[in-house]
Specification:
The structure is a homodimer of 201-residue chains. With 201 residues, chain A is mainly alpha-helical. In chain A, 81% of the residues lie in helices and 0% in strands. Chain A folds into two domains: 48 residues, Homeodomain-like (Arc Repressor Mutant, subunit A, Orthogonal Bundle); 142 residues, Orthogonal Bundle (Tetracycline Repressor, domain 2). In chain A, helix 5 packs parallel to helix 9. Chain A is globular, with a radius of gyration of 20 Å. Chain B binds a DNA duplex (18 and 18 nucleotides) through helix 3.
Chain lengths: 201, 201
DNA sequence: GTCTATATTAGGATAGAC
DNA sequence: GTCTATCCTAATATAGAC
């Protein structure tokens, strides 16, 4: 045993780094081995195949991605507070992990069926939050619109800049990555201001 | 010559279909040949290598993507009209071509340097529109915010649902694709309503 | 459990007939 | 210009020593 647990963990971390940057198809087992400072054969010793290693990484990334979302939607927060927390927490996480959403989306796009099971095990239940939105609309606290569109808008405004970062950075910041990230810091607040402005009655 | 022009065109179309769905790394020359109903060797006869075929497709897709954006930003429209046209036109295009943004973004993410040249040749100049936003803010027509954040919001709200379609469809529509697309039809109007509400002074 | 060396296969690319 | 057959390399996977 000795290094067993540590090595397995090291492999998973290295694999996550490489898969997230290159995707399943673009990733090379050799590159993952290098990143983990181990031999290529060890990858197979621990995970049998590239596919199984990928599945382990994908599942881990997916549950991490949806945990915070689940927590927010089930906390029974008001629309205002849920949106503020969502924007703050997601943009903050994405500043640290900007490649995750594009990775997840790309793999799902390529073969939705293959990953369907992993996805359905991790999906957050949004219905409590949709009901809160509905209720506040009926009470006149916020203007009326389709609750799902409001939720989609919130998610879009927080996540898209990171998914589209390579383009956004070129179009808006002349390729200056640092300016992009500074703008994202301010955006934590800007996004909720924008949304709350749009829905205030 | 005979079928030359038609074959080349057929290859490009088939390659676009396959590359957009699977990405450069996930696409197979055999699959492209099948899609075009020709032999694999013909692909090399016309385009020499997979890389060159990909470059041709990517460049074509990119210019198509940015043409409308360029047109809108240089038309000298008011903020209200530009946003309305942007939302209507982009969501409409994306309903017909939902895979394009994720494709472009994934390839750029994987290797920004390799595609930098193609990108910079196609980038729309947004400065006229940013100036219009600035002007309308100073005139008090719309509330004050960072012009770039407003532009980012507009782009995010229109494009993200399509990039994130596989997830959005699961979370919000229990996997029902048709409901997703119906919602997108309504969204053409909903998005501009939402934005204009957020910025009205 | 970790390595080196090797087998296997998939897939891009080419040769050559028609 | 289009096909069949074949080559060749890159990359996954395994065998076997330590």
């Amino acid at each position: 045993m000795s290094e067993s647990k540590n090595t397995e963990e090291a492999i998973l971390e290295a694999a996550q780094t490489v898969f997230i940057r290159k995707g399943m198809d673009g990733a090379r087992m050799q590159e993952i081995a290098d990143e983990a400072n181990i031999n290529k054969a060890l990858l197979h010793y621990y995970f049998r195949s590239k596919q199984k290693l990928f599945d382990a990484v994908f599942s881990k990334v997916l549950s991490g991605t949806f945990n915070e979302m689940r927590a927010i939607f089930q906390a029974g927060l008001s629309v205002e507070h849920a949106i503020k927390r969502f924007a703050d927490s997601y943009i903050d996480t994405l500043i640290k992990n900007p490649y995750i959403p594009e990775f997840v989306i790309h793999e799902l796009n390529k073969d939705p069926e293959a990953l369907k099971k992993t996805v359905s095990q991790n999906l957050p239940d949004i219905s409590p939050f949709l009901r809160t939105i509905q209720k506040e609309m009926e009470e006149g606290k916020i203007i009326r619109m389709e609750p799902k569109q409001l939720l989609m808008n919130t998610i879009s405004l927080c996540i898209f800049p990171f998914v589209g970062r390579p383009i956004i950075t070129q179009i808006l910041f002349e390729g200056d990555e640092q300016e992009f990230y500074q703008t994202m810091e301010r955006r934590k607040k800007d996004v909720s201001d924008f949304i709350l402005n749009a829905i205030k009655s």
